[in-house]
Known about the structure:
By secondary structure, the chain is α+β, with helices and mostly antiparallel strands. Among the domains are: 10-113, Cytochrome Bc1 Complex, Chain D, domain 2; 151-270 and 283-309, Jelly Rolls (Sandwich), CATH 2.60.120.1560; 496-715, no CATH class; 718-776, no CATH class. Strands 1, 2, 4, 6, 7, 9 and 12 form a 7-stranded antiparallel sheet that branches. Strands 3, 5, 8, 10 and 11 form a 5-stranded antiparallel sheet that branches. Helix 2 crosses helix 5 (90-105) and helix 16 (473-483) crosses helix 28. Residues 1-9, 14-18, 20-32, 270-274 and 775-783 have low confidence and may be disordered.
Amino acid sequence: xxxxxxxxxxxxxxxxxxxxxxxxxxxxxxxxxxxxxxxxxxxxxxxxxxxxxxxxxxxxxxxxxxxxxxxxxxxxxxxxxxxxxxxxxxxxxxxxxxxxxxxxxxxxxxxxxxxxxxxxxxxxxxxxxxxxxxxxxxxxxxxxxxxxxxxxxxxxxxxxxxxxxxxxxxxxxxxxxxxxxxxxxxxxxxxxxxxxxxxxxxxxxxxxxxxxxxxxxxxxxxxxxxxxxxxxxxxxxxxxxxxxxxxxxxxxxxxxxxxxxxxxxxxxxxxxxxxxxxxxxxxxxxxxxxxxxxxxxxxxxxxxxxxxxxxxxxxxxxxxxxxxxxxxxxxxxxxxxxxxxxxxxxxxxxxxxxxxxxxxxxxxxxxxxxxxxxxxxxxxxxxxxxxxxxxxxxxxxxxxxxxxxxxxxxxxxxxxxxxxxxxxxxxxxxxxxxxxxxxxxxxxxxxxxxxxxxxxxxxxxxxxxxxxxxxxxxxxxxxxxxxxxxxxxxxxxxxxxxxxxxxxxxxxxxxxxxxxxxxxxxxxxxxxxxxxxxxxxxxxxxxxxxxxxxxxxxxxxxxxxxxxxxxxxxxxxxxxxxxxxxxxxxxxxxxxxxxxxxxxxxxxxxxxxxxxxxxxxxxxxxxxxxxxxxxxxxxxxxxxxxxxxxxxxxxxxxxxxxxxxxxxxxxxxxxxxxxxxxxxxxxxxxxxxxxxxxxxxxxxxxxxxxxxxxxxxxxxxxxxxxxxxxxxxxxxxxxxxxxxxxxxxxxxxxxxxxxxxxxxxxxxxxxxxxxxxxxxxxxxxxx
Length: 783
């Protein structure tokens, strides 16, 4: 009888086979457990991220970032491999994270794989304009700007301006905005004939930012206005025709520079001629005048006293040649890319500068048409021009090339001068920084001036270089401390903060008029002014304390803004420092201009606010969303608060990678609506401003609101380091690590040791970069 059971022999064979299979499985398991981080990366990661983290067609970005090793491990455990149900977890996640971090992810690995270096750079657009203005300005003298504010006003009792015997009054007017009614001007109108008088205002005007300015004169009588041109008026309404009472004209100005201004006004006799009938009374006529401007991206306003000075200044050259935008792909402007458009722009710019100089040759050179030895004197002028353009004395060979050669066989002196100037302005020695590679006092002076001014060394700095007085750190420091108070440094720091705060160019702050009545283009323009006044107040105070940008709780408001934000001020009140109603403000974090910028037309945006905090303030790297982001419309969830809607939309795991950081930061600002007004309720629910942040060290910090967040940011080493790095890049336009692997930590320590003084940090950055990379500091500078 047969049985279904195998024979003993067959059972033995089966057991052997099972043993071999078990042994093979265990061997594979042991082998898998023994894989290195590099082997795991090759098996599970390289297909998307590339063999060395360089990226692939599917995932084009290099695998670099700023997560700590612990954060990177957590991220891999939760998210990688992408689109796979089985994730790399546990010990494998730790091993592959260590490999990625040390091989190419961390800053140290990036520096090792591609060591940063100081790059040969051309002049940026900003630098070219500033250099052109200063190059010509050196032949005219420096503009003065002291503590006096306003314009010099000269009041005459007739239409004849300039006659001293008819000048009744001279004073400093804070601004030009007068309604004289039917009487004469001044504290004693009886000194004037009410139907006939004239006024001249003179001095200078400071341009706070670069761009197109529209000047506006409002008057029903005769007026003319000169801006940066003493001969041809920008606005000429001296001979009136028609009933116009408003006159406008535009001019391009550079930030941080002072321009001459002159405004003349005349009220003439009107009505019946008294020579025919002395008994007949002439009708009373009112007179008024206002001088306004419209800054780039703003609305018109009376030119404020803080931007006016009664001191005369020379005319400035302002280049009008358009240039292609500079590369900002690394986060700051730099001049490392050359294009045909840029090359053509430098040619057009050279022609514009040379034409300007030759048309004013006698004025700028000091050599008249009939001057004896005119040829020799103009050669000397061209030599001085070239030396100032090249930022150092010329060699004998350069004199022959740039001076003597253009004068050879020239048909006239103007042609010779123009040739010389064009040679100079198209030379790499003008267009590029430190092309000679020299490390003498002139090179050091150049590094200082470009760091703080984006322009040429001034006469004092060049004299120090020539006399060997830039040979020690102390000598360099003294020069930098002098230079940091210059208006050009002020303008450069202003522009940095506008970029750092993500409000350059000026955003469109259109808001829902039904929810925010009274918030219009004028309010948005006023808010930008409010932010600028706040920044100036903090940064240019004696302390210049970076931490106060977060901790200070006041605002600058005028009468219009005060009404909008529930503050009791007269409607026509000028800008002034106003304390908060309930201590609810936290510096720039809650400034209404930023709150309105990082918001939608009808609702706040914790995501936009959180991204700003993560990227700009904390210096974190965030990837753009994988697809176009469209917020959930509020009408789809009418009972949900903004926080609840954001939580709902970003709940998927794919979103949490970034929104796990963004949302908790942005939620701390939810007490502020879409125009930055404080609120404690939304949708009839209490606002929840609780938030948190996972630091690079792996510590979770909890916030009960914006004041907690402000305190954390003001003391955070992450914030300090991010700010130091971004300020360095903006001012120097070179990678900070090219100056030494410890440069960023050294500067952060300096910053903290000096109570986070921003001005001292600017000086230290300028000095350190002037002295060169770390390894060069021990070398004795050539004299």
